[in-house]
């Protein structure tokens, strides 16, 4: 079974060729759920396309980060869709904060997949 490196390499290239736009800084309230605040900067890869027809969503752990550290696969039972969001420059703790932010029992959930550090494919 592959360690997924071809996937990560293509995602790296997509990020490198895209403008990262932060639309909601960390601490901003969610537009539809004001009691829920974004744990990290949230935005998109301008000029890309996700399964919902909008730009691909990103969570940014460090200001200006462009290194792909993982993804979050989400499912929205209300909209009846699923998509992938990209984690840029995130620590494992930050990725867990994103997952917790995206878990709305019964209606929305996410699963984080972190990229293995280089040289650890056999782990």
Automatic annotation (TrEMBL):
Source organism superkingdom: Bacteria
InterPro entries in the record: Pyrophosphatase_sf
The name this protein goes by in its record: Inorganic pyrophosphatase
Organism whose genome encodes this protein: Deinococcus rufus
């Amino acid at each position: 079974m592959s360690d997924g490196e071809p996937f990560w390499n293509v995602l790296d290239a997509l990020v490198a060729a895209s403008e990262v736009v932060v639309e909601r800084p960390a601490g901003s309230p969610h537009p539809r759920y004001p009691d829920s605040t974004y744990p990290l900067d949230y935005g998109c890869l301008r000029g890309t396309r996700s399964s919902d027809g909008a730009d691909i969503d990103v969570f940014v752990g460090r200001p200006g980060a462009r290194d792909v550290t993982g993804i979050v696969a989400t499912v929205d039972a209300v909209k009846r869709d699923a998509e992938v969001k990209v984690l840029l420059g995130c620590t494992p703790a930050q990725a867990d904060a994103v997952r917790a932010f995206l878990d709305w029992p019964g209606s929305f959930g996410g699963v984080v997949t972190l990229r293995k550090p280089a040289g650890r494919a056999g782990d």
